[in-house]
Amino acid sequence: MARDHPWHAGVARREHGFTYLGLLILVAILALAASATLTLGSIVQRREAEQRLLEVGAAYRQAIASYLNSSPAGDRRYPGTLADLLRDPRYPGVRRHLRQLYPDPITGKNEWGLVGAPGGGIMGVHSLSNAKPIKIADFALENESFEEATRYSQWVFMARPLAPVGGAMPAQGGLPPAAIPPLSAQPQPPSLSPAPMFVPQNGAPAASWPAAPIPSQNLPGR
């Protein structure tokens, strides 16, 4: 049997080498594609979590403001705990400011950073995540300060009290009483002009005035 020529053996080895190299390149491309897909999916999930954080944070902010601004007379304060938002302990009946206690969408936990009020209670919440936000612009007016944040824990959702008008307490439900305009701004009744004096016809004098003397040269028969 004739032996293979060495030239044919070298060609076969080179072909096997090219095939192995091509396989390595294909594996690397697939790995990069999978990594890019995972990264893109992670970014999409993070954006969804950010949007959910804005919605949940706004719900907590609104609930805390509702609790504060619906305070009964003489008991105006912030909630002592987040659970107080589910059932206001200041009223005998069931009074809710929040449907449920929502978890932090970024961490997935039920733990929140709490902002204490000057006189006690909770006036705001924030995430405990120190991750860098993806969203850095186009925030709503009440969240404009988030544009300078470098981590999610700086997205603070804080309730602000309504300023009372004229020292009065805000009305229940979070709306302040309507301002009463000053007296000078209120409409005044129309002033009554004096009735005109009745003047009799034919040149006769009015009853309230003495009759003027008639010159003698104008009397008939003289």
Tell me what you see in this structure:
A hairpin with a 5-residue loop joins strand 1 and strand 2. This protein is 29% helix and 5% strand. The chain has a three-stranded antiparallel beta sheet. The chain contains one helix and three strands. The protein has a domain of 147 residues. Keywords: Membrane, Transmembrane, Transmembrane helix. This is Type II secretion system protein.
Q: Which keywords apply here?
A:
single chain; 222 residues; Type II secretion system protein; three-stranded antiparallel sheet; 1 helix; mainly alpha; membrane; disordered C terminus; transmembrane helix
Shape: elongated
Q: Order of strands across the widest beta sheet?
A: 1-2-3
Mean pLDDT across every amino acid position: 74
- Which residues form runs of ≥5 with pLDDT under 50? 165-212, 218-222
Number of strands: 3
Helix run count: 1
Name the helicity range. 25-40%
Radius of gyration, CA atoms, in whole angstroms: 44 Å
Give a short summary of the structure.
The chain has about 220 residues and is mainly alpha-helical.
Secondary structure blueprint with pairings:
Elements: H1 6-69, E1 113-116, E2 122-126, E3 156-158
Antiparallel strand pairs: 1-2, 2-3
